[in-house]
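Bug report

Summary: structure tokens for tRNA-uridine aminocarboxypropyltransferase 1 differ between web form and batch submission.
Environment: batch mode, default settings.
Steps: 1) Submit the sequence below via batch. 2) Compare with the web form result.

Sequence submitted:
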Amino acid sequence: MAMREDDRLKGPFSHLKLSSWDPLRSATREVCPKCKSSRKVYCYDCFQFLPNIDPTSIPRISLPVPVDIIKHSQEVQGKSTATHAVMLAPDNVSIHTYPSLPPFSDPNKCLLVFPREGALSVSEWVRQNGTETAGGGMDWRQVERVVFIDSTWIQTRKILKAFSYLLSSFPTSNKAYWE
């Protein structure tokens, strides 16, 4: 479907209702009560908001399926965008540090979102697996979990190589890679 000219001028996110970011703007650095590290807004090691932030002022979302993010132990935690997902959807998002992996009861019901040769786009995967709803959306009941790898390309290759016996059986998507 082609985008109308006036929609293009507004931008792709003009239809979204955004919360005020005033609580973030006025935040100052504080010491995390749990780990005693100096942070601003939230602690990316403890995954908790700092006392100067009212957690009710930050949107909290619920995802239709559990999300697991695998990161390499040598990655700098403060540079990872994965922590944002945990802060916004704490009941649905877990971060696992390589070599630790989340439990996969049925790899065929897990979706690894990662660009690799032969990987399907998410929409192709939905069509092939019969998970498309009548309205063209996704029926998430067929998916046990979605897995992302949040690391540099070098570290990602190490993760894929170490767990190729497991990850190779995952259906993969190559078009929605998170960078």
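Above is the batch result. After comparison, the two runs are identical; trailing whitespace caused the diff. The two ends are 26 Å apart (CA to CA). Residues 66 and 145 are 5 Å apart (CA to CA).
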